[in-house]
Each structure stands twice: as structure tokens, then as C-alpha cells.
Amino acid sequence: MFSYKERSKIKQLMTNYHFDVVVIGGGITGAGIALDAASRGLSVALVEMQDFSAGTSSRSTKLVHGGLRYLKNLEVDVVAEVGREREIVYNNGVHITTPEHMLLPLYKKGTYGPLATSIALKVYDRLARVKKEERRTMLTKKQTLQLEPLLKEQDMRGGGYYVEYRTDDARLTIEVLKKAVAYQALCLNYAKAQNFMYDKKRRVVGVEVLDKLTDDTFTISATQVINAAGPWVDDVRKRDQVANNKQLRLTKGVHIVIDQTVFPLRQAIYFDTPDGRMVFAIPRDGKAYVGTTDTFYDKDPMHPIATREDVSYLLETIHFMFPQVRVGHEDVESTWAGVRPLIYEEGKDPSEISRKDEIWVAKSGLMTIAGGKLTGYRQMAEDIVDQVVRTHKFKHAQKCATKHLPLSGANGINAKNFQGYIGNKAKEGERLGISYEAAKQLVATYGTNVDDVFRYLRNVQEGALPRCLHARLLYAIYHEMVYTPSDFFIRRTGMLYFDIATVVKYKDAVLDIMAKELSYTDKQRQQFNEELIIALHEAKYPQ
């Protein structure tokens, strides 16, 4: 029930049944709510107007991190909550979350001094309940430069060394959704909730949905409707007949990707910039990516792009912190831009607005959840589903189970056995005719779901697509609700950001296979090809 082939059946079930909960929004917050509610035994339907995670949840810094910088703003409660959640997210999905040692270089007249940093990291360790082997270490200047020789040496006083977690944000969202579907949640992409349904007391009792692939509409009735639409939260609330006085303020964050042959970064770095902001530089799969910017944004949240000015700012931060590195606009392979839905606070700069989440309940009964961070998605879901259960006194609802619930692809694997599992499964992949390294990459990406990927691998021949890529494409079509090449290259594989050359090389072959498997019309084939070309252009940004 998580394939386009089942789309008609999913729509029919959504129309025929009354649900305990309908969720509007298929980003990480909506996905988390669907999983929490479904795993408690509630009936759940979720609709997303684009592809799943197509908004903010595929455009983050791709870190499950505790937000050390929020200590600077004295947001102790935010640090405590998301810090503790890091470990939970990691344990529940070791195949999509990886420990990443982070180096915080310290300089004279920098934002953080050695003593203040030592204290801040110690407080961070305590608030986040960091396990002993991952607690912070303070380093000398020599030790800091040994970890990353490219760092600016002038005025350096040492460094702080601590652990965060790197993830693939879009794949995390997909794995959460697949787990929700395993608990009988019905989830549909390209389905826009365009109007609310009301009872005689003017209470929201469902949604009218537009299927954007077929242009037909259908209705879903529910006891509770939850608005988790991210940057579109206010747009959804405007469709309700009674809204409250809270509102969002959108900010844009941009990242750039540079090949490590040009920017040979060894170590993930978290550093302050001349204008007092904090920026990450992170090595990943032969690339180094740098971000993020933080500027107010009032344009279409569906298509934020990196401007030349955005990229120039990030290049300047590289020149500032890594003076030996000579990079220019021509070295930027790809970019991505995302919009953060933050709760409006008058008079505050973008970086000062709190990342804390809030739940709002309108007179109509519509519940809205806004704000928050990727890291805190599970706790946010628990909080709002708790409120739903209390409000409606659902006697069939069980207690929240997501704190120790493995995501899709993580059954039976954990931090202790995962590397051994990768090694054993990679040998199995070798026997199927692919390289050991390629097989390792598949296992590390799909976890225990790699068995399904391997089944496709057995049945495909080397042709216009390499066998690995072909198997991944078929798995995405039949197990991950992929419908367009952009879905596949951006949100199921991340290749548009981290391997854009492969996208350019194989985009036509992927389009051919998808057109055949999904029975595209000529119009759809042209439309989806144009969408991918536009996405490629946006990733390259105007140089």
C-alpha cells in the first residue's frame, strides 16, 4: 500500500472509511504524527500536495543535531528536548543516521572562548544526556589542526570536539512513512487538501482532497484533522473559517556542494562567521557541503532557490575559515535551498527566532503544529497525538510506542551490530554481481529493506542503467511511492545534490523506465522531464 500501483485503492479506502485522524502534510512532522497515531491503534490518513518531504524535509542541513547554538540564545528547553531526541532518532534508524564528530574551532575574539565553550559543551552533554563515549573533548591548537589542517591557523586557541548525527532527511521521512503504512496508515502524495468539511456546529470533520495527478476530488472524514503543512501551515489555516492570531515567519537556508578534490575537507566543522552566524562544513561521499544561510523569505515556498548572492556569502565563509582553499562559483557543483517555518516573533532577526514548536487549536477544532526542528519530530508527534487522544477520549488508543520503535529498514539492527550486518550483506550483494563497495552502499542506505532491493537486482540486466541504479529505481516505484524522476533523483536518492553528474547521465534512461512501469501519457512524460530539467537548473543556480 505504498506504491503508485495501489493509488486507486488507497483513494477508495480514504473515501469509504471514517478516520480517527487525518494529517495534512507529508514532511517529517506529518510523517511522525502518522506513525505515532497509527502505532497507538488509531486509524490514520495522510495527504501531501507534493511528493513526500518535497518541502523543508528534503532541504535541511541533513543533521539530527541538538542545536548547540540555541544555548547562546538561552533556549535551554529546546536544547534539552532535541538533544535527547538525537539518540532516539539514531537508535530507531541506524541505517539513515550516522554519528558525526563535529569540530568547533576556537579563535581570539571569536563567538566562543575556550572556557565558555567547555562549559557550554558540558551543559550540552548534560541537557542532551549524551552517552559517555560521545561527550565533548577540548583540544589544543595542535590537535585541532591535526584533525583539519585546512583551518585558519591565525589566532586559533584550540577547539571543541563533540558528536552530532548526520542523516538523509528525505529518506528519514520516507522510512517513517513506510513504518506508518506498516501500521495500516494510508498515505498519499500529490493529494492536496483544498477545503474543510464541517458539521452543523461548524466543527471540522474532514477534508476535500484534489488528486493532482488525475484532477479529480474526493473527501476524507475524520474525528480530528491535523495541519502539519510546514511552510504552508498558514495557507491551510486560511481555508478554515476561524483562524487564530498566531502566524509563521519563513526564513530561507541555502547549502552548496563542492567536490573534495577542490575542497579536501577531512572533518566536519561548525564555525562562526565574521557576521556572528554559525555555519557547517561537512564531508560526505566525496563531496563537501557548506551551509546554511538564514534570511527572511516571502516568496513561493514551493520553489526556493539559491541566488548568486547566497552562494557568494557561503564561498566567503569558506575563504574566511579555510584560507588555503581556493573555490569560486565555478566550483559549486550543486545547491539546495529550503524554507524554515518559524513562529513569528516581532523584532527578531532570522537567526534569533526560536525553533521551538507550538500546537494551536482553532474554534473549529482544527489542530495545527508549527515550528520545531527535524531532530524533534518524534517528540512533536507524541505531544500532538497525546492531545488528540485526550480531546476525543479515544479508549482504543494505546500509549505512545515510538521511543523504542525501529523505523522501516531497521528491524533487528542497532548501533552495535549494524557494521557487521553491512559486511555480511555486502558479500551477498557481491554474489549478485556488483562490487563489494556498491553493495555496502546499498545496505547502508536501505538497512534490512536491502533484501527487497536485492530481489530486483537479481532480475535486471546491465543496460541503459547500471544494475544497482535500476534496482533502486524499481524498489522506489514499488515500495516508496515514487511517481516522477524528480521524486527518485532528489528525495529517494539525494543524487541531485550529491551526485548531479549521475543525474545528467542517466535521467533519460530513468524517464524511459518510469514511463513504461507507470504508464505515463505523452503529456506526463514531457511534464516530468521538464520538471527534472528545471530542478537541475535550480540546483546549479544562475552562475
Distance between the termini: 43 Å
Question: What share of the residues lie within helices?
Answer: 25-40%
Which CATH architecture of the largest domain is right?
Answer: 3-Layer(bba) Sandwich
In the CATH scheme, what's the topology name of the largest domain?
A: FAD/NAD(P)-binding domain
> DSSP helix count?
17
Number of individual domains = 3
Average pLDDT, rounded to a whole number, is 91
What fraction strand?
15-25%
How many strand elements? Answer: 18
Q: Quickly name the level 1 CATH class of the largest domain.
A: Alpha Beta
Walk me through the structure:
The chain is of the alpha+beta class and 543 residues long. It has helices at 7-16, 28-39, 76-92, 114-127, 141-147, 169-182, 233-239, 308-321, 377-392, 418-431, 436-446, 450-458, 467-479, 485-492, 495-498, 500-517, 522-540, and strands at residues 18-24, 44-47, 63-64, 97-107, 137-139, 156-167, 186-188, 191-198, 204-211, 217-227, 248-259, 268-272, 278-284, 287-291, 295-296, 332-343, 358-361, 367-370. Strands 3, 4, 5, 6, 11, 12, 13, 14, 15 and 16 form a 10-stranded mixed beta sheet that branches. Strands 1, 2, 7, 8, 9, 10, 17 and 18 form an 8-stranded mixed beta sheet that branches.
